[in-house]
Amino acid sequence: MGTLSGISRVFRRIPGSNFVFSLAKRLVLRIVRFDLVVPLQQLGARVDAFPHNLAASVDQLRERVEASSREIQHLKRRNAVLEKIASYSLADSMDAAAQSPLITVILPTFNRAHCIGDAITSVTRQKFQNWELVIIDDGSTDGTTEKIAPYLSDRRIRFVQQSHSGHAAARNHGLRISQGSLIAYLDSDCIFFPDFLAAMASEFVNDSSLDFAYGALAFEQTNSYYGDILFEPFDRAKLLTQNHIDTNVIVHRRSLFEKHGGFDTKPSRLADWDIALQYTADKPGKAVSVLAAQYRIRDKMRVSDIVPHWPNYFLVARKWYPGPVQLPRVLYVMWQYPQLSETYIETEIRCMQRWGVHVEVWHDVDVVSPYPVSVTTHRGSLEEAIRLSKADLVHVHWLSIAIEQHQSLAASGLPVTVRLHGFEVTAHTLADLLGRSWAKGIYAFPHQLKLVNSSDARIREVNSVFDTAIFSPFIQKDPKLVVRTAATLASKDLPFFFKLAELLPDHRFVLAAVTCNAREDYAASIRDLHRSMNSKVELRFDVPRDEIAELVAEAGIYVHTLQRPGLENATPVGMPISIAEAMATGAYVLAADLPEFQDYVGDAGATYRDLEHAAELIALTANWSAQEWQEAWTRSVERAFRYHADELVLRGILDDWIALTAASRFPPVSGSLSA
User: Fold this and answer.
1) Which of 189, 226, 400, 542 is the most buried (most CB within 10 A)?
2) pLDDT exceeds 70 at position 211
3) Is the pTM of this model over 0.70?
């Protein structure tokens, strides 16, 4: 316990540091408890205890040892942070802080009468007293006015009410009426530590060039992601990928608001991340080693409890992508285009066009169900298309097309990237592609990477994506509406959907099918089967993409059907875009119980064994409460935007294209955000 004694001496130098010391003590005890000696000593004994699967048992123990090692390193880093905070002294800064101009603390609140008093008191007890507190009541209905009234005898406290508009709008109101040249923020369920404003005032007085600073955030209850305390050095590149600066620990000059504006009201969450990025766009912020605020949980009304994280992550991240100086011209090479069923390709192209990439397309065959496009398309020879498009790079969809056109691709002298799809990808075909020197980038679904034991840097994992321009969370779901969207291919097992509808007469079933090239006979057979079964399924053919988006948005349940393939050494499925689209709207998703679908759907739905099991899973939803539907909706939306939002996932491909063409035409781009 020598380590604990040493830390004790450091922490006890600072008056009023009991909280910090107890937090450090907690961390050090955890380090001792998780010391590697224990699992290492037990390793031999535990191996002897497993008569079966000995190798697997050893692997599990090794993983536990490695996890313990990671935990120790994590806790040591936290301990270093605490030592740094504990050694921060205000002794030399109080005189400087006394010269500081006014600090405005903006405190928005909504129905927090039960805890707002603690927040206000934490401001009045600051060692630094040259502050004003602006409380913005965002339409509370719980007696907040009466709770705040006794505090208004302090003339430094102002109370303003507005109709319910959200925390970002409330903070903006506070910014507009603020009188201080420095601004701080406090949530109504959190509290400041007494030294916070004095320390920050001193920093700004002593450094006239400083515009944005932040302190350390302590968690009342250990956070599953950050642990006990959040405090990291300022790193703009890291900040572009994730936030490490909470609103409650920020102080900035009011001039930043005057120059850049206030909080973006479009995201309903992560406003602190966006404002940190906005206010440090011109010059870096400063991490000040002071314990600033305590994050507390006093109810289930927190934004983080009721508002999805990942759709808002998407909204903020897309605003702050570093822009390349110039973008490459790309020729897409594919089997058929523009075919309504190939929506994954159109989604990718539209995203690239939004970023400013010049796209042209060469396709091998004509289509049955076309849609209008704005890109230039080519037929004839691929060599001619490459010449006419003046491409800097060729991007091929489908592995088989890349192998088919290998001579033209090799002769072009251009870098080539390939996007893999479903059943055509085997260990053999993937190895064949890896043997082609012109293939500079290969984008595979997660399960396809397992086909090859290769560390080839050209292969990267890229998920299926949905078009964020037309698919978005839709809360007004019809829990009785079951939808399937699919191409008219035998592999889609559309008769399964008809049979499922027969078992669930209380539900409405809609199949939106697309006629595929060279498959018109199968489309006709689907129509014939529909008539012969006198099916109640609403059958819609060749529906435009925007109408598909409206249909899926309304559906409470999405069912993916599949004729199970029997190809050896192959990935049986890709990652059907229709599942990602359905999740993006908040639909409850059902898919066949293949491992690939179990990983894809995750907690956004369930996988079914057979027809009867699928019917049973749907029937169970009829008894769900409104809360259960809300939770299912949130899980789907969160999963879709976390793993499948187009501008988060596809950015990695764009960054590759820029790097591949940089040597001959473009300067390198640093700090790119890859998903």
Assistant:
1) 189
2) yes
3) yes
